[in-house]
Automatic annotation (TrEMBL), chain A:
Localization per Swiss-Prot or TrEMBL: Cytoplasm
Gene label: acpP
PANTHER family: ACYL CARRIER PROTEIN, CARRIER DOMAIN-CONTAINING PROTEIN
Membership in a protein family: Belongs to the acyl carrier protein (ACP) family.
HAMAP family per UniProt: Acyl_carrier (MF_01217)
One GO term (biological process): lipid A biosynthetic process
Gene3D superfamilies tied to this protein: ACP-like
Keywords of the record: Cytoplasm, Fatty acid biosynthesis, Fatty acid metabolism, Lipid biosynthesis, Lipid metabolism, Phosphopantetheine, Phosphoprotein
Protein name (record): Acyl carrier protein
One GO cellular component term noted in the UniProt record for this chain: membrane
Automatic annotation (TrEMBL), chain B:
Name of the protein in its database record: 3-oxoacyl-[acyl-carrier-protein] synthase 2
Chemical reaction(s) catalysed: (9Z)-hexadecenoyl-[ACP] + malonyl-[ACP] + H(+) = 3-oxo-(11Z)-octadecenoyl-[ACP] + holo-[ACP] + CO2; a fatty acyl-[ACP] + malonyl-[ACP] + H(+) = a 3-oxoacyl-[ACP] + holo-[ACP] + CO2
Source species: Thermomonospora echinospora
Family (UniProt): Belongs to the thiolase-like superfamily. Beta-ketoacyl-ACP synthases family.
Free-text function comment from the UniProt entry: Involved in the type II fatty acid elongation cycle. Catalyzes the elongation of a wide range of acyl-ACP by the addition of two carbons from malonyl-ACP to an acyl acceptor. Can efficiently catalyze the conversion of palmitoleoyl-ACP (cis-hexadec-9-enoyl-ACP) to cis-vaccenoyl-ACP (cis-octadec-11-enoyl-ACP), an essential step in the thermal regulation of fatty acid composition.
Amino acid sequence: MPAATEQEILAGLGEIVEEIVGIPAGEVTPDKNFIDDLDIDSLSMVEIAVAAQDRFGVEIPDDELRNLKTVKDVIDYVQGLTGATKA
Amino acid sequence: MSRNQTTVVVTGLGATTPLGGDVPSTWSALLAGRSGVRPLDWEGVEELPVRFAAQLAVEPTEVMPKHRLRRLDRNEAIALIAAHEAWQHAGYAFGDRAGGTVDGDRLGVVISSGIGGLHTALNSYDVYREKGWQRVSPFTVPMLMPNGASGLVGIEFGAMAGSHALVSACASSAEAIGYAVDMIRSGRADVVIAGGTEACIHPLQMASFGSMRALSTRNEEPARASRPYDKNRDGFVLGEGAAVLILESEEHARARGAEIHGIASGCGYSGDAYDIVQPDPSGTGQSKAMRRALADAGLTAEDIVHVNAHGTSTPLGDVAELASIKAALGEEAAAKLCVTATKSMTGHLLGGAGALESLITVLTLRERLVPPTINVDDLDDAVDLDIVRGEPRELPDEPIAALNNSFGFGGHNVSVAFQRAV
């Protein structure tokens, strides 16, 4: 799988969040905290993580999921594993 | 009826059924004698002994956003849809939890399902087998538990007096109505959102009810398959749907100027203690439930002008129930009342049936019109009570009362008494 750019990961994550919890993809911006800003509960975060794993071809262990608090955390985590370059 | 007891009234009605996505469309279809039974279009349906059912007229996807439906079992989604209609019908605004309407601590919920989240359980098991446990939705448990609908409705409307889910197969939601009446009488709540929901039209159910030989196999004429009291009836038709009643103490309803659609007068219960699926052929259990309903309601047999029968279209059950009605009310009173079996149109909603037929009974008394039993082409010789057929029957313009019977596998007999509000 070719490495995804930051913009591609952000767009993909936006689609996943919209699909799973109904928040418009446009509101999913790097600075947003999933729990405090987007009001996403822990069970939905598990669903989002599973969808993100499938989409970006990475593993997100439970221990790691706990550290992914903002949208940017996820983007950085995915990029770290896929070796993507900044767009 | 002059007992010193809180009167419980019906102030709101909501439903989504095989006949319509709400109460008005369901009621007009009932009066028109329309069948909600249709062929199933599933892949592989030809393998099944029964290839039709009474599926919802309006899919939940038409009224609820997709992301919300992802975490609701079908039975939960339709319970919420029916509850919203009932809540609004009662004159309450959504989100208006306190502030002059209802105190959350005085609001209860009793929503039953006989089966629960069957689709969720089976779909999640498929996901587990194909993709592993990590791909199983974290919402699986709250979607498959049979109290899910009750919990969700309680959360939706802020009900904190208690949230309950009584389970007794096809009598489940008749029990829900009875329990709600008791919650109000005992002072635990002023208002209760009460009802039932079921959505288990799935190949496994067609196979398992089919293997019991409980379902009609009239595959060539689905709309004619549910035919209580007809000589050629051959089993029930599986249906799905939800129905919700807003029950309220009369005092609370009058204080807020609510429209009163009927009186939930009382409820009677019995256990057959006979067989896990067959009703006791002597009918004593069913009769006891009806007599206890009259006693609980403070009514006499002469007050009952109508019975909405359990009447599922099974060869033995339909006529056995009529014998039980006669035994419970006496030959003379039974000869004067009229009986209908609305499952001829809606199919059998299992855990949703008691609430839907309670709702229909309330409308029947309010409108003074009994919906007909359809498909009775050739009345069974064993039928010796007045079955409403063809056209709706008009009821007298008097303070009238009716019973709604629901009997469930396990030997659960429930009869709910309603009176016309005057």
